[in-house]
Amino acid sequence: MDPDSTQQPIATPVVRTADRLQPFGTTVFAKISRKALAAQAINLGQGFPDFEGPDFVKEAAAKAIFDHPNQYAPLGGLPVLTKAIADRWREDAKTPIDHATQVTVTAGCTEAIAATILGLINPGEKVIIFEPFYDSYLACLALAGAELIAVSLHRSPGGDFAFDPDELAHAAAQPGVRAILLNTPHNPTGKVFSRDELHTIATLCCDNDLIAITDEVYDRLVYRDPFNPQAKHVRLATYNGMADRTVTLNSLGKTFSLTGWKIGWAIACPELTAGVRAAHQFLTFAVATPLQHAAAVALGVDDSYYGQLADTFRAQRDLLADALESLGFAFARPAGGYFILADHTAVSHRLGLADDMAMCDYLIDHVGVATIPPSVFYTRPELGRSLLRFAFCKTEATLHAAIERLGRMKK
Ligand code: GLN
User: Fold this and answer.
1) Domain 69-299's class?
2) Is any ligand 1 atom within 6 A of the Cβ of residue 49?
3) What letter would DSSP give residue 22?
4) How confident is the model at residue 2 (pLDDT cuts 50, 70, 90)?
5) 20-69 pLDDT, tens per residue?
6) Is 374 left (phi over 0), alpha (psi -120 to 50) or beta?
7) Does domain 28-53+304-410 fall into CATH 3.90.1150.10?
8) Which of 10, 189, 267, 367 has the smallest number of CB atoms closer than 10 Å to its CB?
């Protein structure tokens, strides 16, 4: 019998997002990119380059599709890539690691963050995160049933961000704290944590038996210059006592302008790696095989590539920074990463706009430039209302066009 012929009333399905993800809605990056597209605004919101990654890496991927099997890679990653990651680590961190037991290849750093938190943090345990923070951190804690302790990066009158060591020590000493999640160079502030700051963090981790999770995706985008004469990326895992309690996360996307490839990795001692892999195997199991071959080729690049990359981004930073300063935005020039986090109050007062949300909407709808409202990166949104985040990982032509549009606000 045709089941439809019974004419039974059909119950409306109960369809809803799971409670633990309800508070997060749609990520700000997707929302702003959608709005930017609809309004034909220039997208200085979501942090992705509007130029292509290097041809030699793309060619390696195309070739790998034909030269190698296109089947599952091992769950830890293709040996050719895990070896390349371990080699790069040995050069950077000056310590050898075993590629087979200490490296896990993931679907971008975002999956590495999720796998690390889900694989190593128990429900009810607490994780310290500096705020403002990248939005997926808190959502991953919610997926794991873990709790956040936010420690503020306070903004100085000059626009630099720093934490209060006493506040951090107080947080680290709370019962149930399991980990500190650190992002350096930092999104959205552009801060590069100093040697002294990392020393403070390392000491607290050792004294309180915490693990550290470090998101270092902008490690090659550090701008040491008269604005930030001390800027240098230092890996927390290299501090005394930290090798066996740190999970270092990174990715190919930012360094090779291939954010759409979603190739990331986690480096940790074998015991921590076992936790990361326990989750990773059930999240994605393995990552696109041909892209792993190409990622291995990318990581074999000569060091001069990284220097040129940072020089290019520094020039883009300065192009946008000069324009924003002349328009009345206030900020310290970032020492690292893709973003300028600027105080907009001088501009928004002139325009009669109340906060970052209003400013962001106005810029998309009336100026044609999309930015990110940073209050979404705070547990206390009021701390971010006077700020706006601009991405400068764009071509000179895109930045010039955006600057020209922003310049019309003066009138
Ligand atoms: N990391 C990027 C940013 O901060 C966004 C990544 C994403 O959209 N998931 O803009």
Assistant:
1) alpha beta
2) no
3) G
4) low
5) 999 998 999 999 999 999 999 999 999 999 999 999 999 999 999 999 99
6) alpha
7) yes
8) 10
- Ligand 1 pocket mutation, candidates 43, 134, 389, criterion most atoms within 8 A of CB: 134
| Cα(355)–Cα(382) distance, integer angstroms | 9
Nearest-angstrom CA–CA distance, 265 and 269: 13
The tokens describing 182, both together, are: 């650190």
Residues 259 and 33 sit within 8 Å (Cβ to Cβ): no
The CA distance from 384 to 360, in Å, is 12
The CA 29 to ligand 1 mean position distance, Å, reads: 6
Residue 249 phi/psi, 5° resolution? -110, 145
pLDDT of residue 148 exceeding 80, the answer is yes
Query: Do 257 and 52 contact (CB within 8 A), yes or no?
Result: yes
Which pLDDT does position 4 carry in this prediction? 60
Per-residue pLDDT tens digits for 182-200: 999 999 999 999 999 999 9
AA letter at 271:
E
Which helix (DSSP H) or strand (DSSP E) does residue 201 occupy? helix 195-207
What does the alpha-carbon distance between residue 269 and residue 27 come to, in Å, rounded to a whole number? Answer: 32
Residue boundaries of the structural domains of the chain? 28-53+304-410, 69-299
Amino acid at 116: T
CA–centroid distance, 165 to ligand 1, in Å, is: 28
Looking at this protein, which amino acid is placed at residue 323? Answer: A
C-alpha separations of 330 from 56, 255, 323, 341, 400 in Å:
39, 28, 11, 9, 20
Q: How many CB atoms lie within 10 A of CB 77?
A: 28
Q: What is the pTM of this model?
A: 0.95
Instruction: State residue 175's pLDDT score.
Output: 97
pLDDT of 138 higher than 80: yes
